[in-house]
Write a structure and sequence with these properties.
With 239 residues, the chain is mostly helical. It has eight helices and no strands. Helix 2 packs antiparallel against helix 4, helix 5 runs antiparallel to helix 8 and helix 7 packs antiparallel against helix 8. The protein binds fe (ii) ion (2 copies).
Length: 239
Amino acid sequence: MTTAQTTVREIAVENPASIRIFEKFGIDYCCGGRKPLAEACAERALEPAAVLAAIEAAAQPAGHAAADWSTASLAALCTHIVTTHHEYIRREIPRVRRFAQKVVARHGADHPELPRIQVLVKTVGEDLVQHLGKEELILFPWIASLERNMATCGPPSLGCAGAMKHPIRVMMAEHDAAGEMLEEIRELSHDCTPPEGACPTYLGFYQALSEFGRDLRRHVHLENNILFPRAIELEESRG
Ligand SMILES: [Fe+2]
Ligand SMILES: [Fe+2]
């Protein structure tokens, strides 16, 4: 049963519909989701009972549940992450960078935070593209091969027991680094709120940044809170 003492991360894993509620209330369910709901609510001056009620109301009706990634195959989850979130990042980064360039050229002199946001966008974009490559070329195939081998009782997959923890730790540190850059962007942009009378490019830029942050949180949640713990558990069960 979900209570105020359940961690935000657990609630997000068990009830994916809660993610929209956490987003609405500004509760971090991703990298900062390892704390009880009561603590996360206290930080944002929210009443835990009100948040719990909203989560309960948002629960998907039976038969209409979103994909349950806590039981789907790990290979299917990896494919979902690549086709949904990795492709989104690759498509979106050039667009966000073009927006940044235009907005800085037109408004950078009046808004000194914009050049810094542009630098952060460039860095986080370059870092993430490298990060996706490592997941797609090394970690995800490794996870899928471990799962296949476990299912067929074939020879042990690549690597020695417990070895997968190391690249996973590196991936999680990279998630934290990207999350910190996006948090700085959020603060500099006043939560992606454009100034009064902003031009359409400015509005589009902040809208794109806001969506980019939301997608990254959903993406990192699937990896940090579901895929990685399940992969580690599977590898450890091999003995
Ligand atoms: Fe990823
Ligand atoms: Fe990742």
